[in-house]
Design brief:
The chain contains seven helices and no strands. By secondary structure, the protein is an all-alpha fold. The N and C termini lie close together (8 Å).
Length: 123
């Protein structure tokens, strides 16, 4: 079961790297310049904090895989991240009304995250 926790670590690390690329992928230098300064700052700060959260989750999964499956705190951590990915999946439908295939692909990836983090809780 600790293998699943390690996979959760790599999953989280991949999302940290993905979020590091947001400035280039989404052309934030140009697009965010059109926002008010406080909204531009909020977008970038939120993204940087998400990167931190994903790196922290990865670190916890890599350093404490056995604790994640054998302790109440570890299971609570895994449950919290499973709920994070459930919420992110729901937000896909609330905020993205686009029909772009990438949106649907990401929805599947978020559901995978929810399942990956939930598995150690129940087994």
């Amino acid at each position: 079961m600790s293998t699943i926790v390690l996979i959760c670590g790599f999953y989280s690390l991949a999302f940290a790297i993905f979020h590091l690329m947001f400035w280039n992928i989404f052309g934030w230098k140009k697009d965010l310049a059109r926002l008010r300064p406080e909204n531009r700052a909020i977008m970038q700060i939120l993204n940087l904090r998400l990167i931190y959260v994903f790196l922290f989750a990865a670190l916890m999964c890599f350093v404490f895989p056995d604790e994640m499956i054998s302790t109440a705190m570890g299971k609570a951590f895994m449950a919290g991240f499973s709920l994070f990915w459930l919420g992110r999946t729901v937000e896909q439908f609330v905020f993205f009304r686009m029909k772009h295939p990438a949106v649907h692909m990401l929805t599947v990836v978020f559901i995978l995250g929810m399942i990956l983090f939930a598995v150690p809780i129940f087994f």
